[in-house]
Amino acid sequence: MTAMVEISDARKVYDGGFEALKGVSLSIEKGEILALLGPNGAGKTTLISCICGIAVPTGGQIRVGGHDVVRDFRKARSLVGLVPQEVNLEPFEKVWNTVRFTRGVFGRPRDDAHLEDILRRLSLWEKRDAKINELSGGMKRRVLIAKALSHDPEVLFLDEPTAGVDVELRRDMWRIVADLKAAGTTIILTTHYIEEAEAIADRIGVISRGSLMLVEEKDALMTRLGRKELRIELQERLDAVPPQLAEFELSLEEDGRVLVYSYDTGAERTGIGRLMTRMTEADIVLRDVRTRQNSLEDIFVDLVHDTGTDAA
Ligand SMILES: Nc1ncnc2c1ncn2[C@@H]1O[C@H](COP(=O)(O)OP(=O)(O)OP(=O)(O)O)[C@@H](O)[C@H]1O
Prior knowledge:
This protein has 312 residues and is α/β, with parallel strands linked by helices. It folds into 2 domains: 3-222, P-loop containing nucleotide triphosphate hydrolases (Rossmann fold, 3-Layer(aba) Sandwich), CATH 3.40.50.300; 227-293, Alpha-Beta Plaits (2-Layer Sandwich). The chain has helices at 44-51, 73-78, 95-105, 112-121, 137-149, 167-182, 194-200, 218-225, 272-281, 296-306, and strands at residues 3-13, 19-29, 33-37, 59-64, 67-68, 80-83, 155-159, 186-190, 203-208, 211-217, 227-234, 250-253, 258-264, 286-293. The strands form 3 sheets. A 6-stranded mixed beta sheet has the order 6-7-8-3-9-10, with helices on both faces. Strands 2-1-4-5 form a 4-stranded antiparallel beta sheet. A 4-stranded antiparallel beta sheet has the order 12-13-11-14. Helix 3 (95-105) runs parallel beside helix 5 (137-149). The longest helix is centred in the middle third of the chain and has 16 residues, at 167-182. The site of adenosine-5'-triphosphate has 12 residues, from helix 1. This is ABC transporter ATP-binding protein. GO terms for molecular function: ATP binding; ATP hydrolysis activity. Keywords: ATP-binding, Nucleotide-binding, Transport. It holds the Pfam family ABC_tran. It comes from Roseivivax marinus.
């Protein structure tokens, strides 16, 4: 695979002296979906702005498609579509003109059929002649996405794309992201909705206080840091965890009718077999058994909490 975005030791000190990025290195492959998670103020938007050439890094190097984002700004920028966090549209412009204008800015030849397709996929076609200031907040977000896609970017940045949007738009977005990925587009998104990262990302990066704390395949991360619960429903209720089972991490729930065993999914031995043997020896009869995997959210909260950073 080829690296589409290469970030090496990126640093950003704002004018007031605040160090928002403290040497971030990261390589993002073509066709990959990377979700950047982090508490408020962690530096996610700053990093995206540096990659898109909106903010100038004060140290390190960033390349998009092999082009340096500072020295080869135009080439690098033309490969990038950005859906910003804040709505920055011309209020009196019509939807159609807004999107067509953006395509032109990036030097792409006029292609009305292509723009029509984008607007239809975003349910904006009926609104093509409406002025921006006549649209709802959700519709404006859709226009931001249409603009970002108008010039066929190879890398798409979505900065908290679904903050405050309705379920329908969130679903549309996920569908569009899946289509773009299938077509080979590289996608980087920041989000506060961890279930969103869990649903669509290939890799997860966690930023905290200007540093990249972790970047890992989502599935591997969930296996490595994940815990599972085995919920054992009992034939007869127990008053306490029997002493024969003291060696296991067990708790009693639902008025003593459910025994919960929490175990590490990354461990070599889960201990389930031994637990079952000990239960049989102790004459405890099971009625039903279920498992529950903890979510990326549980993992993220633990991770950010463990390193003493701001609350998620
Ligand atoms: N133009 C600026 N001048 C000075 N400081 C800034 C500027 N822009 C951002 N910062 C600071 O840099 C830090 C990182 O901000 P950034 O917007 O990158 O965080 P974020 O991770 O995107 O946060 P959020 O999740 O709240 O959007 C914050 O402490 C912010 O106050």
